[in-house]
Amino acid sequence: MEAIRLDAQWIDYLLIAIYFIFVLGIGWFAKRGISSSIEFLLSGRSLPAWVTALAFVSANLGAVEIMGMSATGAQYGMPTMHYFWIGAVPAMLFLGVVMMPFYYGSKVRSVPEFMRKRFGTGAHLVNALSFAVAQLLIAGVNLFLLGTIVNRLLGWPLWITLIVAAAIVLSYITLGGLSAAIYNEVLQFFVIVAALLPLTLIGLNRVGGWDGLVDRVSNDGMLGAEQLSSWPGEQLSGFSNPVLSVVGIVFGLGFVLSFGYWTTNFVEVQRAMASKSINAARLTPIIGAFPKMLIPFIVVVPGMIAAVLVPQMTQFKEISASIDEATALEQTGVTYNDALLLLMREVLPNGLLGVAIAGLLAAFMAGMAANISAFNTVFSYDLWQQYVVKDREDDYYLKIGRWATIGACVVAIFTALIAGNFSNLMDYLQTLFGFFNAPLFATFILGMFWKRMSATAGWVGLVGGTISAVFVFILAETGVLDLPGQGAAFLAASTAFVVDIVLSVIVTLFTTPKPAAELRGLVYSETPKSDFEDLGEPKAPFWKRPVPVAGVALVLVIILNVTFG
Amino acid sequence: MSKSNELTKTAGAFDVRNFIGALLAIFGVILTIAGIVGFTPDEAERTGGVDANLWTGIGLIIAAAVFLIWAKLRPIRIVETPDDEAGAPGTD
């Protein structure tokens, strides 16, 4: 890949340096108050809802999201909005309204631990191991992107960047634990907005406002006006039939992939578990839904602007359309993933450029930190404490948590090198989601509402679902199934979901269920309503209760879908 | 940032709002100055004629003020919670 040198001056470096002092400062301050493993790994369950809500959004707003979504925006335009308005937001609301009471109310310390209590060690081991591996891989992706940015900016060799970035993340997490990660995520959120909002506005100003953008995109001579409405999104889904495309997006992306990701991914759920009450835990993803539905305007839209404003990007897109992406890369030296960087270089003055670079570095580090702080919890509680060394004093597990953090950073450096071989990061990530999360969601939702579902059904469903996803993926990769775009990922996830449900039902009918007495807090029908409420708290006003707030968010996201449909 | 108030037990508790406010304020001031003294024709060409540093700087200073005032008006209160809750994974 060619170097895209951003012309950074001393003022930009100054801003970046100040930001890093704050990042490390947070780790140092958050360190006070860490005396037990719960404080290190779950922030002592003490944070207010707005903090965990922003961390919830930020944990996902890493490199993959920002670069990937602006890349998809540059390539397909508005259909990318589906990842937010059909994908993330409904799933986040569902998590807060339906699933969070089980997670927080059952006092588990991680999502895999919920799995263990509901289905025993078979399903737990599958879940904990696959999650831990996935986190190391995704941490590697985030680290790789960080390394690429610094490499282009400062000209540092990739391996030095990887080590320095990993060392910074390592130092603030081992000092401050999850609290440091969460506080940094909140800080990062604001730096990202401070960087991307001006970038979007200036970009719009350059293309002649929203009307100018609409005009240029519709006359780009390629996909044209199709990029301006999110539905039916055939290019994105890869289905040529518009009806199939809508079904694929709603069921594949919306229901299976996104519900699977947002409701079972411990990286996200961990942020909510760190909050101070069950009400705050439920509000975490629900409050987070509001910024989440606005984020595409500062991520996807800049991608679209880059595709019509930056000559290199336009040229890449034209050659991709007429020949293919590989040729386009060869001739222009850029890919869709560079859309945001190219736009930054094109429109930002020095000063704002520094804020933008700090914002991107922040996002990549926070993304990696989120993966690692979720990894160390699952490793300490679900793998080490459960299967390797049981029944030691809490100090011991705190120490294990710190060692797991160090180990994870080292492994992430190596996975970063693997991650470099994938051209479109979204493909890479979707693939992972499809393998792990879709069957998980199926198993959880069935297990939470069907008390008869047996322990054996739990792990058989998970394994069967995951294998079927891999099978579909291989068919697509080898060309047996021809689905361009994201269609293969949608199909793999949907298949995994269906296979999981079918297998679980069949196996349950031939095995003995868990005794009802062990299912309190884990299965809806066996849990008294009072377990899901804060004891002794006065009834909050409606704007502080999860269900009404979720209702407002739902109405807003429907309005967005209709307005930009 | 500020001296601890006697009425509320802030007790040096870590408040992320002060951190956010301070960082945005520093960024805001630097950008505002850059916008005032360093707005060149080359920059104007990039942004389409807008002094982007200046406007972003002003925006950041306002945002920073909101955080600092919020933290000042509603400081974190430390509530002693019973110890039995933390660290108890429940019956197994």
Summarize the structure.
Chain A: The chain crosses the membrane at residues 13-30, 50-71, 83-104, 125-150, 156-175, 187-204, 243-262, 283-310, 352-379, 400-422, 428-450, 457-476, 488-510, 547-564. The complex is a heterodimer of chains A (565) and B (92). Chain A is an all-alpha fold and 565 residues long.
Mind explaining what this structure looks like?
The complex is a heterodimer of chains A (565) and B (92). Chain A has 22 helices and no strands. Chain A is mainly α. Chain A has one domain (10-528, 540-563): Sodium/glucose cotransporter. In chain A, helix 3 crosses helix 8, helix 5 packs parallel to helix 11 and helix 7 (121-154) crosses helix 18 (394-419). Chain A starts with 9 loop residues before the first helix and ends with a helix. Chain B has 92 residues and is mainly α. Chain B has a domain at 24-73. Chain B is 55% helix and 0% strand. In chain B, helix 1 (16-37) packs antiparallel against helix 3 (52-73). In chain B, 29% of the residues are buried. Mean pLDDT of chain B is 73; it is low at 1-12 and 80-92. At the A-B interface, helix 1, helix 2 and helix 8 of A face helix 1, helix 2 and helix 3 of B.
Core attributes:
heterodimer, A: 565 residues, mainly alpha, Sodium/glucose cotransporter, globular, B: 92 residues, 3 helices, 55% helix, 0% strand, disordered N terminus, disordered C terminus, transmembrane helix (chain B), transmembrane (chain B), LPXTG cell wall anchor domain-containing protein (chain B)
Topology:
The complex is a heterodimer of chains A (565) and B (92).
Chain A: H1 10-30, H2 37-42, H3 49-60, H4 63-76, H5 82-105, H6 111-119, H7 121-154, H8 158-207, H9 209-218, H10 234-237, H11 242-264, H12 266-273, H13 278-309, H14 311-322, H15 325-332, H16 339-347, H17 352-388, H18 394-419, H19 425-449, H20 455-477, H21 487-510, H22 546-563
Helix pairs in contact in A: 1-8, 1-17, 3-8, 3-12, 3-13, 4-13, 5-11, 5-13, 5-22, 6-7, 7-8, 7-17, 7-18, 7-19, 7-20, 8-9, 8-13, 8-17, 8-18, 11-19, 11-21, 12-17, 13-14, 13-16, 13-22, 14-15, 17-18, 19-20, 19-21, 20-21
Chain B: H1 16-37, H2 41-47, H3 52-73
Keywords (chain A): Membrane, Transmembrane, Transmembrane helix
Transmembrane segments (chain A): 13-30, 50-71, 83-104, 125-150, 156-175, 187-204, 243-262, 283-310, 352-379, 400-422, 428-450, 457-476, 488-510, 547-564
Family (chain A): Belongs to the sodium:solute symporter (SSF) (TC 2.A.21) family.
